[in-house]
Design brief:
With 536 residues, the chain is mainly alpha-helical. Helix content is 64%, strand content 1%. The protein is built from 30 helices and two strands. Strands 1-2 form a two-stranded antiparallel ribbon. Strand 1 and strand 2 form a beta hairpin. The radius of gyration is 28 Å and the shape is elongated.
């Protein structure tokens, strides 16, 4: 489900709606034209790469529509295939039902329920909106004082809002203001239905947003989130997640949200009452993620202790993961890890990490071990956070090497393509810290696993392996001898015909050969950079 573009080197990266990176800078062609590069060049390259990665456009994969039918969730795209629904109505049947509803006869309620069933089909929806006055009649019943008719009319509007037909959705526009009004009512069932109908409508329609924002939808949602009813809280989370993903969100919606009490309340609901409010916690965690990755005002969120609160939640979840009876914890862990990972990138820019790095690393590896291989998407999210944690922190890199976590990281190599790629990226972060870290990597037998990855056919994975190998040779040249002895050159040679890799492969073969051939009296600390002075 998740994919990663060209990734090499290290750097704290803001992982947006998925850890997919497009348009990342390719490996500099000049990096291997001489055997090594100095520290400042490495830093400059990483800064450029981080900038390119952060500008990558995030995927909007959670924008979807949801359908409530008698407490049953139905996925997007299933209109018209419900086995209990009536067959699509003819135009005459729809017209007759509308006439019965207008006449106010005793069968009006029955006709409205039949209409509600018929509107489960796209064909019936299209026939209904083409009838003159049809939406006016439906909205009239929705705003009436007859509770039963009002609920049936609300369900009809909800069915229409779930449509994939733009004309059908546009026909619902006159009802949007009334939907907002009833969020201040006393009927929990009606409030829930109105929330999900609004959430469906704002997905596609700029006009709905333009109409509802001036009418105060953000302040209404800030009031609704205070409801003690979990179904209302979850509905608020759904509407917010839809609004916060829109193209207009950074300029028009997120500033309003940040100026309200919503962020604090969202954070509270993410971190509490998971036994009963898991659905709401998941929705609000995604909402926080969309706010954070917009980078509109993350300093405000940091000042509200968002980072320590979410970090503590992750630590608690890691402690209880093997014994918890709460289902679907992975659905909450995923967005929370993204939030923390992106805030880590934000804090790294300020030069200070306000988390207990060792504890957070431990939690990530607990999740990795628990969810591998069943839920690879969680493993990928955890590795992405570890990448951001280790990119600018020597403390985190040392903790990774010294807290018995390193063997778990090595085990991830030569597994799933994305997992492999991210694990190698983390190892590159460690190696980039210099001689001491590269010596430890070498002593902890990173070479056999690295050589195994070089034998893989995946160009991205091999490219990241080449980056790690380059850093090892640069900071700990002694690794070259073992690399050659373990048939590393043969592993490299099989990629000499790959246009993406051949330049780097050729340079590394030359580097390894030259390092092995160094005179015995050459200082052990000789770096790859120094080789330009000892070449014959």
């Amino acid at each position: 489900m998740l994919s990663l573009g060209s990734v090499s080197g290290s750097g704290a990266i803001a992982a947006y709606a998925s850890p997919e990176i497009s348009g990342a800078r390719s490996w500099r062609r000049s990096r291997y034209q001489r055997y090594g590069c100095n520290v400042e060049e490495l830093r400059t390259w990483r800064r450029e790469r981080e900038s390119a990665l952060r500008s990558a456009r995030r995927l909007q994969q959670l924008i979807s529509k949801r359908l409530l039918r008698e407490d049953t969730w139905i996925d997007d795209g299933q209109v018209g295939i419900d086995s209990d629904a009536a067959a699509p109505f003819s135009e005459e049947e729809v017209s007759q039902l509308l006439r019965n509803i207008q006449r106010g006869t005793e069968g009006r309620a029955t006709s409205l329920r039949h209409l509600r069933q018929g509107l489960q089909h796209r064909e019936t929806q299209q026939k209904f909106i083409r009838l003159e006055g049809s939406m006016r009649v439906l909205i009239g019943l929705f705003t009436s004082n007859w509770a039963d008719l009002q609920m049936d009319a609300a369900h009809c509007l909800h069915e229409l809002s779930h449509s994939s037909d733009p004309d059908v959705v546009e026909a619902c526009l006159p009802a949007s203001s009334y939907l907002l009004t009833y969020l201040s009512g006393h009927s929990i069932a009606l409030m829930e239905l109105c929330l999900y109908t609004l959430g469906n409508l704002v997905v596609e329609m700029k006009a709905v947003k333009k109409q509802l924002l001036p009418q105060g939808i953000i302040s209404v949602l800030a009031s609704c989130i205070q409801s003690p009813h979990v179904v209302v809280q979850e509905g608020v989370g759904y509407v917010l997640s839809q609004l916060l993903q829109s193209r207009e969100a950074p300029a028009e919606i997120i500033p309003l949200v940040l100026d309200s009490t919503l962020p604090r309340d969202m954070l509270h609901l993410v971190c509490s009452n998971l036994e009963k409010g898991m659905g709401a916690a998941v929705e609000f965690a995604w909402g926080l993620h969309y706010i954070i990755c917009s980078r509109v005002n993350n300093s405000l969120l940091i000042s509200q202790r968002t980072m320590p609160s979410l970090t503590q939640l992750l630590l608690e979840l890691a402690s209880m993961i093997s014994t918890s009876s709460i289902e679907c914890l992975e659905l909450l862990i995923c967005p929370v890890v993204r939030c923390v990972g992106n805030l880590l990138a934000e804090e790294a820019d300020d030069g200070e990490l306000l988390v207990k790095e060792e504890h957070l690393l431990w939690a990530m590896f607990v999740f990795i071990q628990h969810f591998l291989p069943k839920h690879l998407f969680v493993v990928q999210e955890c590795l992405w956070l570890i990448n951001n944690l280790t990119a600018n922190s020597t403390i985190s890199c040392c903790a990774l090497l010294n807290l018995d976590l390193f063997p778990s990281l090595l085990k991830l190599l030569c597994s799933h393509q994305m997992v492999n790629l991210l694990a190698l990226t983390v190892l590159c972060n460690v190696a980039a810290k210099g001689t001491a870290c590269c010596q430890t990597l070498y002593q902890k037998a990173v070479l056999p696993s690295l050589i195994s990855t070089l034998a893989l056919p995946d160009a991205q994975v091999v490219g990241q392996g080449l980056e790690l190998l380059h850093l090892l040779f640069l900071h700990w040249p002694e690794a070259a001898t073992d690399f050659v002895d373990q048939s590393g050159l043969q592993a490299l040679e099989q990629h000499q015909d790959n246009l993406q890799l051949q330049e780097r492969v050729k340079a590394l073969i030359q580097t390894a050969s030259q390092l092995v051939a160094l005179p015995q009296d050459c200082p052990l600390g000789t770096s790859v950079e120094d080789l330009q002075f000892v070449r014959k």
